Amino acid sequence: MLKTLLPRTFKKPLSPSIKRLYSTPPEPLKKKVYSRIPLNSEPLKNPSKEYKKQGPDFEFATWKGLVLTGVVGAGVYVYFKHEKKRIQTQKEADSNRGVNKNSGYGKPLIGGPFELIDTNGNVFTQKDLEGKWSLVYFGFTHCPDICPEELDQLGEWLNILSSKGYTNMQPIFITCDPNRDTPEVIKDYLEEFHEGIVGLTGTHEQVKHVCKQYRVYFSTPKDVPKGQDYLVDHSIFFYLMDPQGEFVQALGRQYDGPAGAAKIMDHIDAYNEDVENGDLLAAKNKRWFDKSVLEK
After folding, report:
1. Contact 244, 130 (CB under 8 A)
2. Does the annotation list 234 as a binding residue?
3. Is 143 a known ligand-binding residue?
4. Closest CA to 175 of 166, 165, 185
5. What pTM value is reported for the model?
6. Which domains, from first to last, does the chain contain?
7. 116 — phi, psi (to 5°)?
8. For residue 249, what are the β-bridge partners?
9. pLDDT tens, 271-294?
């Protein structure tokens, strides 16, 4: 009976599921490729070359934008840094001279009217400070070391300022020892230093008065026999005065070489910008206002 069943079993047709299991698998379905070509336009003849041709233009535009952004950002940074420095410098100058811009009131703490004579015998007053930037130093010709060092420092500043175009400067030497420092003595003494330094002297009372105006301390020994040498104690500062003859800053020995010249240029730049912008309190209240003398 088994023999009769087996042939009949294998002769029976295979079911569809069996056929699919043992037959060769069909090819995978291919995705339909959609065209990227816009309507009413012609396809590219050589797409790879065309896209390569367009690539560098896009890359250049990107770098150009980055460079432009960097340049603009750097410009804004430099501007605000400069403006911050200018405002700080102006505040420092206003604070030194005792000016309150918000209230419009203030009184100079240093400086004021005085009358002396120069090495040619001409009268020199506070009015002669107007129209130029002045560097005022108090000393005496018999000073063994400090005064010569400070006057050499003054010469270095003037050379740096001149090389940068800041030529509207007036260096001034005022003696604290009028008994020995006559106009002739001062004139000979200043020949050893930077040319253009204005030497000033006067009577003991005149010198005492100008030292008081500039808050300069000085003292000479009493009852010194005639002809005997002596030293004079005095303050060691350069007083920077603006073209209106008003005090800006006292420069001490910490401002040596380029540092002192840079500080002076900062004040000049800040002052000139304020005048050009009409932002000085002096524009309506101060007596001197002439842009022509503010040029470097």
Report:
1. yes
2. yes
3. yes
4. 185
5. 0.62
6. 106-287 (3.40.30.10)
7. -135, -175
8. 240
9. 888 787 765 554 334 433 333 333
Instruction: Give counts: helices (H), strands (E), the chain.
Output: 8, 11
Q: What is the pLDDT of residues 48-85, one digit of tens each?
A: 554 455 555 555 557 667 767 776 666 555 545 555 55
Calculate mean pLDDT across residues 23-41. 58
User: Residue 53, CB half-sphere, CA atoms under 13 Å: how many?
Assistant: 6
Q: Are strands 238-241 and 247-251 parallel, antiparallel or unpaired?
A: antiparallel
Which residue type does 87 have? I
* Spatial CA neighbour of 136 closest among 293, 241, 267: 241
The pLDDT of residue 34 is: 55
Supply φ then ψ for residue 127, to 5 degrees: -60, -30
Q: Is 211 labeled as ligand-binding?
A: no
Structure token digits, residue 210: 């100008």
Please measure the distance between the N-terminal and C-terminal CA atoms of the chain and give it in whole angstroms: 129
DSSP state of 255: S
Separation of alpha carbons 199 and 193, rounded Å = 12
Per-residue pLDDT at 17 exceeds 70 = no
Which residues make beta-bridge pairs with 238? 137, 251
Among the listed residues 156, 121, 150, 119, the one whose alpha carbon sits nearest the alpha carbon of residue 136? 150
φ/ψ of 133, rounded to 5, equals -85, 130
